[in-house]
Specification:
By secondary structure, this protein is mostly helical. Helices cover about 70% and strands about 0% of the residues.
Length: about 150
């Protein structure tokens, strides 16, 4: 993969684009308005946040990582998304399949948030793991497009 220009690499817009931001807003809307409101079936609201969150979370983490440690290498940026996706995937698997991991996760978030956090141990939520691959693919596509754009200048 070709390197992108220094200015593009200083802050690649992995998360700060319409689709990842919309995914984050969907999680907020779903978790604070839709869940329990009876507007959508419970099984659907239970999956919406998982799908949207697993898409935007690695992109956000990798963008923050790249802000902290800028790079001009597209490959490195995509690798950061892949590492973030792996971390979120392992955490997600743990909290969706283990009551112990779920209890620890809820306790940690409840200590940080103004209201108690809640997560459901539900192995059927693991179907959302595919969104981690979508996030990595999206980052790769974005960085290739940026490299082409920089090469055309």
């Amino acid at each position: 993969m070709a390197a992108v220009t220094e200015s593009a690499a200083a802050r690649p817009a992995l998360f700060t684009r319409a689709l990842p931001v919309a995914a984050m807003l969907l999680v907020a809307l779903n978790d604070h308005v839709l869940k329990g409101a009876g507007l959508l079936p419970g099984w659907l609201t239970g999956k919406l946040s998982d799908v949207a969150g697993l898409y935007f979370a690695p992109l956000l983490a990798a963008e923050l990582w790249t802000l902290a440690r800028p790079t001009s290498e597209a490959r490195t940026v995509v690798q950061r998304v892949a590492w973030a996706a792996l971390g979120f995937g392992l955490l997600f698997i743990a909290i969706k399949t283990s009551h112990r991991a779920d209890a620890l996760y809820e306790a940690l978030w409840s200590a940080l948030l103004p209201r108690p956090a809640s997560n459901a141990v539900d192995p059927t939520d693991l179907v959302a793991l595919g969104m981690l691959g979508v996030a990595v693919w999206d980052a790769r596509r974005l960085m290739q497009r940026e490299a082409k754009r920089a090469g055309a200048r």
